[in-house]
User: Which sequence fits this backbone?
């Protein structure tokens, strides 16, 4: 009996759906494996804070666990969290979202991205996104049956998205523009005027905007502009945010989507069948983060800023020209002067000097020639990594 | 800018002028000048090391001594405080609000040494009405630093 479905599968090339084959496996898998087998590595390859979640947040979650608060929450997320989130978005951006119909608590921004794409993409729809950009964007679009369309957003344009570069890519299948600023992997921040230009373009062509603002809390000496808060943009923007980066809460897996009632209802439908509800303890922690996490965030931002300055200057000093990142916690230096491609550079640097960075090519063709260095690590480690990188670069230039 | 420099040094006395310069955007010369001036004015009092003596089995004893005083004309508590803080056994001396007036943190090699300090030096000082000595049994956190069990969790080496 059991043999029949297997026989059916055999008629295909293998057991897997075609869709899975369309997303490229992480090009740096072998690199991960190599890393796992090495000792004494300084890793600038992480995409998360080096801080544990601030104690007051952990303590609130522990207390809640002790009380036995371990059940599912509402599909949308705990009402208290949605309420706090609405207050937060109002205070921060003067944005009014109805907590009962326009906010959805998700398992990190990752889930929110996936839901957003599945809620709005029909097969063959195109989604425009900057190149380089975060690895999940194209994958989520493909998994939803859509087609990612990359718009170069390279160093010449400050790794920012230019409306003029988007326009020629728009056609009848274009459904949305997806962007994430402050950006992973570049650290770029979109200035308000450029964001307005993108917003106007989207409005002219009736496109949705999907804005991943997970790094909104981590900017240095500049203002973060919330896309949904631009005049008239709330209705056509799916705003995604979360707690992982600003509050050092990556493992809690709590993010959110804020959008029109219609879109949130659609996303919630998928969410309730696939996830049920975001983790309860994470939601409790997120409430505490919103209520009184401001001071801890400010302290972390101050520390990141110090490290940012040391990292960027250090990279420039060793001859790896580096765009000045104004957000997130990444530096994205050019390694073109070494003559290596970014994967070679990262692999050789790891083997020869035990410093882990992420090849820029992992973030799209536009990331080739760069590596991502995360500075959310101690100053001593950053300085030691820079010493090793200097030695490495010197050796490879001489050749 | 001085405050910025001091904050960096307060959390890491080893921070080089070069590093501080990068972190603050000042020139190295300017950082060096600020530090020198702060040292001269005793804004920077001293560079010290926070040691966990338990790790090397050093049995030094500490006590928090509450001291109740009779204030004196013109000088209030200051002159009595001075008589107390001049003793090397007094590691820290604070004027506090509440049921007593001075909080004195004393160290000694033995309980005997500290009790000698309290009974023979501190208590007999004119103006000292009474003392209450609390021996410290265990230090969990010192000057903002957790001493034991704060190694932190391990991160994955690469996360996109």
Assistant:
């Amino acid at each position: 009996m059991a043999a029949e479905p297997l026989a059916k599968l055999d008629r295909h090339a293998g057991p897997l759906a075609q869709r899975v084959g369309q997303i490229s496996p992480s090009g740096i898998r072998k690199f991960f494996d190599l890393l796992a087998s090495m000792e004494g590595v300084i890793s600038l390859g992480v995409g998360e804070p080096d801080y544990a979640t601030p104690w007051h947040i952990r303590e609130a979650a522990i207390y809640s666990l002790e009380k036995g608060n371990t059940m599912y929450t509402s599909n949308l997320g705990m009402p208290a969290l949605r309420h706090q989130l609405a207050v937060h978005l109002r205070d921060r951006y003067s944005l009014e979202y109805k907590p009962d119909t326009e906010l959805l608590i998700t398992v990190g921004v990752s889930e929110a991205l996936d839901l957003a794409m599945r809620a709005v993409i029909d097969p063959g729809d195109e989604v425009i996104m900057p190149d380089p950009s975060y690895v999940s964007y194209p994958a989520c679009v493909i998994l939803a049956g859509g087609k990612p369309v990359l718009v170069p957003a390279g160093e010449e344009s400050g790794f920012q998205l230019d409306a003029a570069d988007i326009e020629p890519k728009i056609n009848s299948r274009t459904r949305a523009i997806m962007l994430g600023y402050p950006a992973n992997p570049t650290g770029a921040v979109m200035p308000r005027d450029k964001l307005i230009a993108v917003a106007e373009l989207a409005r002219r062509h009736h496109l949705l905007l999907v804005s991943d603002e997970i790094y909104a809390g981590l900017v240095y000496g500049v203002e973060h502009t919330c896309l949904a808060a631009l005049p008239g943009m709330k209705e056509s923007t799916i705003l995604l945010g979360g707690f992982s980066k600003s509050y050092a809460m990556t493992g809690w897996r709590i993010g959110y989507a804020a959008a029109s009632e219609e879109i949130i209802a659609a996303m919630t439908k998928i969410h309730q069948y696939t996830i049920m509800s975001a983790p309860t303890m994470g939601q409790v922690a997120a409430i505490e983060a919103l209520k009184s996490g401001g001071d801890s965030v400010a302290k972390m931002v101050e520390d990141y800023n110090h490290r940012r300055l040391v990292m960027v200057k250090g990279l420039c000093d060793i001859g790896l020209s580096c765009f000045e990142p104004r957000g997130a916690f990444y530096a994205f230096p050019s390694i073109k002067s070494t003559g290596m491609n970014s994967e070679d550079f990262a692999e050789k640097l790891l083997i020869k000097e035990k410093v882990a960075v992420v090849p820029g090519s992992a973030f799209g063709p536009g990331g080739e020639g760069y590596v991502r260095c995360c500075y959310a690590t101690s100053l001593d480690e950053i300085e030691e990594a820079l010493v090793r990188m200097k030695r490495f670069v010197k050796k490879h230039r001489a050749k | 800018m001085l405050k910025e420099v001091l904050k960096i040094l307060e959390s890491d006395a080893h921070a080089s002028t070069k590093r501080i310069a990068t972190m603050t955007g000042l020139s190295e010369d300017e950082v060096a000048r600020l530090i020198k001036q702060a040292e001269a004015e005793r804004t920077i009092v001293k560079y010290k090391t926070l040691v966990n003596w338990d790790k090397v089995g050093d049995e030094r004893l500490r006590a928090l001594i509450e001291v109740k005083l009779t204030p004196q004309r013109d000088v209030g508590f200051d002159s009595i405080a001075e008589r107390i803080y001049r003793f090397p056994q007094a590691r820290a001396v604070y004027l506090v609000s509440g049921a007593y007036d001075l909080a004195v943190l004393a160290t000694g090699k033995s309980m005997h040494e500290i009790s000698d300090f309290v009974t023979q030096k501190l208590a007999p000082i004119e103006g000292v009405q009474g003392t209450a000595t609390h021996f410290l049994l265990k230090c969990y956190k010192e000057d903002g630093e957790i001493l034991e069990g704060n190694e932190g969790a391990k991160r994955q080496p690469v996360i996109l």
